[in-house]
Amino acid sequence: MYDIKEIYQPSNLSETLNLMASNQDGIVISGGTDVLIRLRERKLKECKLISIHKLKELQGISYKDSLNDMIIYPGTCFEEIHSNTMVEKNCHCLWQAANEVGSPQIRTVATIGGNVCNGAVSADSAPSLLVLNAELELTMAHSKRSVPIREFFTGPGKTVLEKGKELLTAIKIPAVPEGSGSYYIKFGARNALEISTLGCAVFVTLNESKDVFEDFRIAFGVAAPTPIRCTQIEERVKGLPLTRETLKFIGNEVLKEVNPRDSWRASKQLRIQLIRELSQRAAEGAVRNAGGAIID
Amino acid sequence: MIKVIHMKVNGKQVELGVDDRECLTDTLRNRLGLTSVKKGCEAGECGACTVLIDGKATNSCIYLSMWAEGREIVTVEGIKGENENLHPVQQAFVDEAAIQCGFCTPGLILTAVEIVGSGKKYTRDELRKLISGHLCRCTGYENILNAVEKVAGL
User: Fold this and answer.
1) Which domains are present in chain B?
2) Per the CB 3.0–4.6 Å rule, which of A107, A128, A155, A161 could disulfide with A201?
3) Which ipTM was obtained for this model?
4) What pTM was estimated for this model as a whole?
């Protein structure tokens, strides 16, 4: 039996926001794969839960065409994200990340919104959402704001979300230009049921003749206190040719912008090695997905 | 607080009172006597408590019973054929000696039932990934994979 004092099951979004406003010590629960574990471990006690598990309004993926934003509602589970063909085509890195979370049984309930809002540095969806320039819609009872995901994470387990008041209500992914591709690599000590030791997502846009990086975006999980984008290297890569040399340049120079640390999961040295290696492999994967190839 | 929920369990509609703090594993085992649903890690890692919820393999230990309102639940008790025959997945587990202590078996069988139900065929590597939410401490997985491959392999 979980140590739950009260549990509310609002039937729509506005009821949820009102409940949050009147119960600021309430904890929002969606898939439950983090909140219920914390309850089991007694890290949460006598808690008041506001369950949005069955709120259809916050579930699903909306996609009109390639010119418009894709909207992923936060209560969408990873299994649904991974089975969506438009996500596979336009947001390949996110599609890959969605298949790396926990296990198949976890992915049928765990939601992308929970993954983002927990603010974990190892969140599998974070690097991909960072390179896709996702915008987060945060809603309160009487107001709404839009925050670029790059400004969302503020520290380990910390975000700009006003705890107890604000709810993530939409994840908007801007339309992806022609000639783009993306790729995500997760490194863990085992292949399943694993928390990322390091995650790397790359998004590229190639020029028409597919020999130069027109746009380059790279983000990491567990390479700093929060999931991060490395914007300096991004600027330096734009205009460079698709060669092995450029990849090496990325692998070495990106190290100036990361700040990995020792943890019981891996040493700082291993993480540095992973950043150097995975950034090159993810870049090559993204180039391939954009229809290009790296020249030796 | 006790709440009344309605769900379909193994094909039968049930109405029952559950504590709003309890997880589906406890409801199925203690209130409905479905003891094929095992309690293992209780943290969503081992997969022993796996049941099908609306056809999808889900860890019932981290699923609140009240969320099951209106859902359809299947446990191993509910997969037998008309003449009490074993389900093809169960038969494959027997034929391939995919069972030792048996603790992980009900969960694995339900995941395999979902895989078979998809109607698709998979490579051994794909099957390895599809059953990756189950821990088995006896078999080394080889015979389990042989069994799943027998019913859903290419």
Assistant:
1) 2-76 (3.10.20.30), 88-152 (1.10.150.120)
2) A128
3) 0.96
4) 0.96
